[in-house]
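W.,

You were right to be curious about this one. When I first looked at the sequence I had no strong expectations either way, so I just let the prediction run and decided to look at it fresh. Below is the sequence, 79 residues in total, followed by the output.
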Amino acid sequence: MPSQLKCPKCACDMEQGYVLEIGDGNFRSAARWIAGPPERSMLFGTKVKDREQHAIQSFRCTRCGYLESYAPGEPPGAA
């Protein structure tokens, strides 16, 4: 990923941030990309066990606010 991303809409600088997920008990974490379509889980809402997962990197344009997200690299815990 380039060291300084430019907005594809207005060509201004983009700053890195993240998308916040808020779960039960106000538990907060960074959003993750999960492989495959969502499937309901009887106990936990959505099944994620045994699925490829990547942390989401999100970038926001400092001028127009456009958001762009990426899910690069190895799955967490790999290597």
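Here's what jumped out at me. The first strand starts at residue 14 and ends at 17. And, maybe more interesting for your project: The radius of gyration is 15 Å.

Coffee later to discuss?

I.
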